[in-house]
Amino acid sequence: MSRPVQEKTWRVIDIIHWAEDYFKEKDFDNPRREIEWFLRELLACSRMDIYLRFEEALSKTQLSTLRKWVNRRIENEPLQYITGSTAFYGRKYFVTDQVLIPRPETERLIEIALEKMSAKQSWEGTDIGTGSGCIGITMALECPDSKFLGLDISKKSLEIAQKNANLHQVENIHFEEKDILKNGFEKPVDLIVCNPPYIPIEEMETLMPDVKNHEPFLALTDNEDGLTFYRRLSKMADQWIKPNGWLIMEVGLGNHPKKAMDIFRSSGFKQVELIKDYNGDDRILLVNIT
Ligand code: GLN
Question: Is the pTM above the cut of 0.90?
Fold first, then answer.
């Protein structure tokens, strides 16, 4: 009589060991991070909790999901697209490959914007190129008396942004489809925030495969020198922003921040400042409209 084949039991700890070796073999920089990301999602728990659940056996369904995820990751698909979400400013955001993955550096933009607007009670703001909606939604949540508008040229990204707004039940933001390089808006606002596509087209090839092969081209590069949006904003800021209002933008690396700043300086703006992120890189360009 044949005995039923005993399937191997995979406990959380076994998976961690296996995956760490596997991702190492595939030359991933931080193998432990890869598997922790998946386990957090699979077990719906925090990073710490994974280690408290070391002995727990994974179900067949969990194992088969994990297998699919690992196979996608080996092709350099970002973790965030695979599990469908990420965290930004301490909150969950849904992401698909139709939107840029929110970056920790962009949280610096939020801090600056909150600081600059803290004196005002009710005011209006616009998030240009809202993508997942992470900047506009965070601002709207942190400033419940403000009214926010999120703009994007991509319909698909606006669907994700709306889904994220619903997730956080935020009422003081709405979204509109707009190509701000061609169109503007009539009523000036108190604050414009923008993390534009700023990678020069000639630098696209140098990006990590995770980014260049998976994140939306439209969200990364302006297809030119990475300065198109700053030029446009420098032309329109006086019309789009009220006197004493703020324009707060993210900038890139190397000499990009200086170039972006020079665009505003040579357009006659006097109050222009670069602010560093926590890596010590100039990251935020701040313009006070006088
Ligand atoms: N505003 C979104 C973000 O900061 C998207 C930006 C973009 O697509 N360039 O993540």
Answer: yes
